[in-house]
Design a protein that fits this description.
This protein folds into two domains: about 90 residues, no CATH class; about 80 residues, no CATH class. The protein has three helices and seven strands; from the N terminus they run βββββββααα. A four-stranded antiparallel beta sheet has the order 2-3-4-5, with no helix packed on it. β2 and β3 form a beta hairpin. It is elongated, with a radius of gyration of 23 Å.
């Protein structure tokens, strides 16, 4: 994570090309300058991604946008040099998620708050779960192995449904 975020300005409400944050003087080739615009795209079930788009200074038309990879939460800010930067969180490291949420939660929009609540609830629920282990009673009998494997998969699917329901239950009640 970027340590200069405390001294920077967060950028809010830039959620589409129409509401994007625009800057003049972006380099185009060796000598020309142009406009660039930035926004954060949000998509239910995917998360958020950082997007940027430049204007062709010769035709004055916007080029195709460059879109980053979806992450759970992405924030956008200006650094000390007035350059647009972004910071994001992956969901794989519980402590990094907690640190990120604690650092930025005051600047989250509703989508980001919902994602943060979901991640924190997920870690809470999964910390209480025990892993399922498959063990076949007779490794040599292929038919029995197949039947027990199917039964185990059904039990695992039911357990996952319960876990997902618990995650959503806790996420709705989580305070940031």
């Amino acid at each position: 994570m970027n340590s200069t975020i405390e001294t920077t300005k967060y950028l809010f409400g830039h959620v589409s090309p129409e509401t994007a944050f625009e800057q003049e003087g972006y380099p185009w080739g060796f000598r020309l300058r142009t406009k660039i615009r930035y926004w954060i795209e949000s998509k239910e079930g995917y998360g958020q991604r950082f997007c940027a788009q430049t204007m062709n200074p010769k035709t004055r038309l916007w080029c195709a946008p460059k879109k980053g990879t979806y992450r759970r939460i992405v924030i956008m800010f200006l650094d000390e040099n007035n350059h647009v930067k972004n910071d994001c969180i992956y969901e794989w490291d519980e402590q990094k998620v907690k640190d990120f949420v604690n650092k930025h939660k005051e600047n989250f929009d509703e989508f980001q708050k919902e994602e943060a609540r979901y991640l924190l609830a997920k870690y809470l629920v999964k910390s209480k779960c025990k892993p399922l282990k498959f063990k076949c009673s007779d490794e040599t009998n292929e038919e029995l192995k197949k039947q027990e494997s199917e039964k185990f998969l059904n039990e695992a699917n039911e357990a996952q449904k319960k876990i997902n329901a618990l995650i959503h239950f806790h996420a709705k009640r989580w305070e940031l």
